[in-house]
Specification:
This protein has 11 helices and 2 strands. It is mainly alpha-helical. The chain has a single domain, classed as ABC transporter involved in vitamin B12 uptake, BtuC, CATH 1.10.3470. The protein has a two-stranded antiparallel sheet with strand order 1-2. Helix 2 runs antiparallel to helix 3, helix 2 runs parallel beside helix 4 and helix 9 runs parallel beside helix 11. The longest helix has 40 residues. The chain starts with a helix and ends with a helix.
Length: 323
């Protein structure tokens, strides 16, 4: 029985790693808003599906895959732009701005997937790797070839992190990081923080939409509910990566990589739990518990670290008095 369990678990690892790499791209987008920009953006639950819907629709209508994915990224950029304008121009609080865009995207995504149908609205859109030249597909996850999703996505992630590392090392990227670190100081240095906030939200949701496009290809369809809970998964990946690798990864590129590794760890844990017999209906509960646990770990560690210092303070004071 144990051998059967381990064999099944081992066979499921390529799929878990591939999904982890896809959601790792989404986690990088969450990292940009959550850690760099200090902006709790909830748009991602909608923009993930937007990227998937745009990519699948255009591919079904004969658009080359690279162009369909580019259009998916542009759609994500526009979603981030709307959230940014809600916040900076309309003065809507950051969380509410993301929620409003997310709600609007639900209807927009239905319209995108229903483009050309009788009622103009559709909840899902299938796409087959047999008929279309998809970049990644779950069907090839066990194939020892260059079109294996793990290899393709790993190369994709490396190139993406290299590009982001270059961008955030330039003046504009540094201004974006300064906005998140200290908005008042950034404005004192002449940085237009409203512009950098909008730019950060656009980049973040563009990456999330890219992940949605890849996920739709991997699973063979886009669905209106595929982005539900995406922000929780993204936060789980970011937090897991930060808790495990914060002492090791000091370089900015490695910090982005830690979010991807966090997503892989998350999906590996999910596979293990499912193999142990947990119902898929309880995955959201498991995700919430994982996020809560990894958020609590740094707090517990800092609290335990303060105890010896607090205990040593009275002893030092008594020694000073005796002297």
């Amino acid at each position: 029985m144990i051998v059967t369990f381990l064999t099944g678990l081992l066979n499921s690892m390529p799929g878990a790693i591939s999904q982890g790499l896809i959601w790792g791209i989404m986690a990088i987008g969450v990292y940009i808003t959550y850690k760099i920009l200090d902006f709790p953006d909830l748009t991602v639950d909608g923009s993930l599906c937007t990227g998937a819907a745009v990519c699948v629709l255009l591919t079904l209508n004969g658009t080359p895959m690279w162009l369909a994915m580019l259009c998916a990224v542009i759609a994500g950029l526009l979603a981030g732009l709307i959230t940014g304008l809600f916040h900076t121009v309309c003065g809507i609080p950051d969380i509410l701005a993301g929620i409003l865009t997310q709600l609007a995207l639900y209807s927009i995504n239905l319209r995108i997937m229903g483009w050309g149908t009788d009622n103009g609205s559709k909840a899902n859109l299938p796409i087959s790797v047999d008929k279309y030249d998809l970049l990644v597909s779950a069907r090839h996850v066990q194939a020892p070839a260059l079109h294996n999703p793990m290899f393709v996505l790993a190369v994709f992630v490396v190139l993406l992190i290299a590009l982001l590392y270059w961008f955030f090392g330039r003046e504009l990227g540094s201004a974006l990081r300064a906005t998140g670190a200290n908005g008042n100081m950034a404005r004192a240095q002449g940085i237009n923080t409203n512009f950098t906030k909008v730019l950060g939200l656009m980049i973040s949701n563009g990456l999330v939409a890219l992940a949605g496009a890849l996920l739709a290809q991997y699973q063979g369809f886009s669905d209106i509910n595929m982005g539900r809970g995406a922000i929780v998964v993204g936060l789980a990946a970011v937090i897991i990566g930060e808790v495990i690798f914060s002492k090791i990864f000091r370089n900015f590129a490695l910090k982005l990589l830690s979010a991807v590794i966090g997503a892989i760890i998350y999906y590996v844990v999910i596979q293990i739990v499912l193999r142990l017999g947990m119902s898929t209906d309880d995955l959201t509960l498991l995700t919430a518990l994982v996020v809560a646990l990894f958020l609590a770990i740094p707090f517990w560690k800092s609290k335990l670290a303060r105890r010896p210092a607090a205990a040593a303070a009275p002893a030092k004071k008594e020694a000073d008095v005796d002297a």
